[in-house]
Each structure stands twice: as C-alpha cells, then as structure tokens.
Amino acid sequence: MRLGTFEIDGMRRLGAFERDWAIDLNGAYGAYLKEKGLSEAKVKGDAELPDDMMEFIIKNEISIPAARKTLDYVRQKDFQVPGCVYPISGITFRASHRPLKIVCTGTNYEDYRRIIGIPFSPVPLIFLKSPSAVIGHEETIYLPTGYGVFYHEWEFSCVISKRCKRVSKEKVDEVIFGYTIVDDITARSLEATNREFQPWGKNIDTFAPMGPWIVTPDEMPKDIYRLRTLRRLNGRVECESNTSNMRLGFGEIIEFVTSFWTLEPGDVVTTATPPAGPFRPGDVIEAEIEGIGTLRNPVEGIEVDPKYAQQINLKDIV
After folding, report:
1. 127 and 275, same domain (yes or no)
2. pTM
3. What is the pLDDT of residue 277?
4. Domain that holds residue 47
C-alpha cells in the first residue's frame, strides 16, 4: 500500500493512493462496515482504522488489515465510494505525519563520498533533523535569502513501526513500517563556514520535505538495495544513482542507532544522500526512488534578518 495524508475541502484525511485516486481510508472503512450491516460502524471504524497516520502506525497490527479490507471494498466499487474517493489531481498532499525524530545518516553513498573526499567512518555518521522542518509533496521550500548556497540532498528512508531498542541488523525488518523519501535540505554555506552551524543549516523550517507517501514493505521491489534513484532540477536529471552504492543498509544503521537511542513508532531513519547539488529560489526540485515514486517541491526565497549572515561574513549568492 501507498499510505499518506492529504487535504481536501479544508480537512485532512488519512489516505491510500492507488492508480489516479486518493482514498479516505477512515471514511471508506466506515462505508464498508455500514454496508456489511455492522452496528456502531463509525466507532468501530475509528478504533480499527484511525484517521491519523501516527495512530495508524502505532496500531499497525490491526490498522493494516483493516486498510487492506477497505481497499478491496473500494476496488470492488470501482473506486466509486461517494465522499471517500477523490482524483489525486484534486487533492493537496501533506506530509504523512510529523515524526518524533528524524535520524539522518551522513556520507553513506560511495559515489558521493569519492566526490567530496571524506574518508570512511568506522561507525555510521548520525545526526538529528527537526520534525518542525517537515513538509509534504508539492509543498514549498523557503530559502532564507542572504545565507549562501543551499543543497538538495535526497535520501531513501524508512519509517519505524514500533518502539524498539537494541535491534540486531538481522531483525531490522521487524521494526520497519514502510519506506519513503526525505530531502535533507542543507544550507551548505553555513555548514562549510563552521561544522557547529550544521544543526542551524539543516533544521530551518521547510528543510525536510517527506513523501510523497509511505510504501509498505510488501509493495517494494524485492531487493531494496538495487533501486534506481534520480535527482532532478526543473525537470532535468542532474544525478542518477542506485541504492547499491550505499555502504551501510538499514540493518547496520538501525542496529547502531538503537544501541544508544530508543526509536519510537513513526520515527524516520535515512540512509544518506547520493551526489547532491545546489538549487535556488524559483526552482522545482524532484527526488525519485524506484518503488516509491517522486517527491516534488517548488522553491521560493524568503526575506530574513541578514544580521546573522553579516556576523559570519556570508555572501548572498543564492
């Protein structure tokens, strides 16, 4: 299943996406229960199939089977379930959810490591990205003018299914709810000026586009470490890579992270970026990963107080 969140008529819906349709899962499940003549359909529907992605992930052992029943019902109706099924062209995508934390990995693609000349690290290079930076597919990234160059880093990522600690790499599949794309937007000039500025430069509002949805493991290609990946700028392919270029997979990364941190349902773990590149206000950036789809975001500049840039002698070259 492709699962996410969308908005229509001013209301957010927990959705599944199939063909050219966005399905309000909670609403459609209620319709399914009502047609089956089951009493208290709405109450039961909320309990088994929540209308919020975080709650869906937490209750995944019952919500996923309920979602599958719902999709079977919608297909049988040829996607004609009034008030529950909408053309994708008529909805507004939102981020699937706001995770408690985004665990990012650095310098994990061999093709990018060779370009930037960083030596191998003996352990995964891990840092956190703020949930407040999360936006969805087609939402706008805002670059603060006067703060130098910004890079599009695009990362194959997973969503955690349950609270977990000390997960061995052999059992990592037991804690993965699904897969998505995260753009780790980076203020490259800040990062290059002082490594201590990295949290500032990576956590600016809108600097964590995520989506366009979450794909459950059963819907992914069999070998997730041989997926074609593309980065586009204004419709032009700027970089093509493959997840086979990753040095560490989800198993090694999550084993390392959970040796020290507890992961919670809905947390996101990335695998670092293939070769990244700069972009500017007015651009449209896209990240495509085989088996998931394309995450697309327009870019605008936003005026901010330039005094901090002036204090560290940044030049506005955006």
Report:
1. yes
2. 0.95
3. 95
4. 2-93
